[in-house]
Amino acid sequence: MKVASRESRAASGQTSCLRCGSPAISGSGSESARPFRRAKRGFCTPCAVCSFFQDENENHGIGFALPADFDPQGLLLPHIQQQFARVLEVGNSELTMEEIDWDQVIEKWGAVSVASPEPFAKLTTRLKARDSGLMTQD
Length: 138
Known about the structure:
By secondary structure, the chain is α+β, with helices and mostly antiparallel strands.
């Protein structure tokens, strides 16, 4: 997942989050970083975390494993954050736990994309198809 983080240490410019439109700093990332790496365009940190938990494509997130009535307040539980920290560590992620404002993640959980009124999981699938050359940009 590409993160254009406000806190990027390797910042090279300014961009806007593809989901919420918030300002974000872009940077160049390592191809080996998973599940999050810096990017010239992508999501702000809260939206990237939302995407990880909401994306129903098992190669990009864990939304397929969450119950339909999942309450994002559960992300504030210490054991959930400890497990998420482990995912970041094992994946050599360029996003750190210190960069995540969990209150903002919860606030943006139900956000509709500024790029499209589609549900978020459907939008991320469409954007990935477009970026891979399978779909042209409208």
